[in-house]
Structure prediction request, 241 residues.
Amino acid sequence: MRYQYDACMESSLNTYFNHKERDSLLINKYGNKLSSTILNGLHNLYSNYLIYCLSDKFLSAEEIAELKHLKAILVLNDTEVRNIHNNITGKIYQKSVREVVDDGEISADEQKFLMVLQQNLLLPDEFAQELSKEVRSNFAQEFLQNAVTDERLSPYEEQQLELIWKNLIVDLSYTEATKEQLSKYKLYWTIENGELPAINVPISLGKQEECYFQTYADWYEQRTVTHNALIIVAQQQASEL
Prediction:
């Protein structure tokens, strides 16, 4: 299978240039300024072979040597090759991380698996951490969005979300608007499923009275009616007669 693929690769390379005339074709004629069509073609050739080598999510010493040889044949610089590797191996790594966090946690065995995968893919530590953080944050965000699709947030869903944050080491920062919206969703769930939460208010209420809602209001007219005072005046007038 490898020999068949190598033969196809060799044939594809020959469609771009003859090996004996490579330097004069790419350097002398184009002066290191290839057209975007040719450059994209060279990148695709390298990318396809890299994907083939990573079919088992592992780069052997032989495959690394072959990729270096292919890089020289295609006259690709270090930056181009690094970008191609990061793009392809990054997608493979992120897909594996997504599969691992699907249950909302990463076990010790799963963490070890990801470390071995990172080494096999030759991913730098900092880059792998960025990829993992992005996947874990997206998972937590997706869980929250799915939880509030009904505009309700139950205590169980809130507890599950907190566990995900803790297990996946995710810190979701909410805007004030989002916090307010989530508070409303929790209140809606409580109204439908639990006891209405009472609100402390700065006015005197009866012994059996509770306040369950408050809001801002604008007073356009203030009137005072003193019914008790009228009764007292009437009683005084009656006693004078």
